[in-house]
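Appendix B, record 7
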Amino acid sequence: MNILAGKTMFIWKLAVCAGGNPVRLAEMAKDAGISTVIIKAADGIDDQNQGTTSWGGPNLLPAAVDCLRSAGIRAIGWQYIYGANLIGISIAANEARAAIRNIQKYRFDGWIVDPEKQYKRKGAAGWADVYMTALRSACPDVAIGLCSYRFPSLHPEIPWSNFLRRCDFHAPQVYWMQAHNPGDQLRRSYRELMALKSMPFIPVGAAFVEAGWQPTVAEINEFDRSAHELQLAGVSWWEWGENGQGVEYHPEWWAAISAHDWSSSAPPGDSNPPQRVRVRANGTNIRTAPHTQGTDAGDLTAGAIFDVVSETGNYYQVKAFVAKSVVDPD
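C-alpha cells (predicted):
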C-alpha cells in the first residue's frame, strides 16, 4: 500500500495552476522535485476539476493525472466531506460513493479525506463510520489519509477515532496562521495526533495568503527542517494555485520549496525498509546493555523514532538498548 513520501503539493483548482496546462503542470512539479500532487477530485457528492459543477472548473483532471504519471509523479485525490446536509440528513454514503467512483476511475495512488466544521455536529461519529466503512471496503488497498485540524485537543467534536481507525496516515493542516512558530506547531500536532494513532505522519504546511497574513521563506524552511528532525517521510504544502495567490504566484516560496531535499526519503512500498520503533512515554530508559542492570544511558522522549540496529531478547538496540515493552513498531 503506497503511503505519501517526499515532497507533496495540494491543488484546489487546476485551472489556476500552470496556466491550466497539464503538461506544464507535470513539468513544473518534476523540476521542483515534487513526488506527489494531491488534486481535489470531489466536494461532498460532486466531482471537482472535471467540468461537472460551476465550482469544479474545466475538465482538466484526466489529463493532469495522465501527465503527472508520465513524469513519474504520483497522483492522489482529495475530497472535502460534509457528513450531512444543512438539515442534518446524512449524505455520508453518497459522499463515499463519490470517493470510490473517483478512485476507481483515475486509479489514484491514495485518497485524502478532509472533514472540518461540518463534522462538529450531532451525528458526526455515525456519518464518519458510514463513509469510512464504505470507502475502505471498496478500496482496501488504497492508502487513505486524514487531513483535518492540526490540534485534536482544540477540536474534540471531530470523531477522530471513527476516521483514524480506517486511515493509513495522518495529513494534518498545520497552518500557523497569524503566528510565526511553524516548528513548534508541527511538533505539537505530531504529539497530539500520534497519541490518537501511531502511523505515518505527512503534515501540510502553509504556503498561502489569508486575511493579510502569509508565511515567510524562513518559516517555510523551518517547517521543512522540523519535519526532517522528526524523521517524517515527507511534507505537503497548501497550495499550488490558491486562486492566484499560492506557491506558483510567489517565486520566493516556489524556490524555497523546490530547494528542500527529500531525495533520501524511502520510496512508497519500499520492500525492505529499516525496522523502526516509536517511544511510548517520556522518561523511558535507554541502556548500554540489553538488561535492567545495563548502565542508564539517558531518557527518551515520547514519540521519538529510532531505526533498530539489532535485537536481543526483550530489547532492541537503537543508539543503545531500549526495552521492547516500552516502544511500538513504527
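Remarks on this record: The two ends are 15 Å apart (CA to CA). The chain has eight helices and 17 strands.
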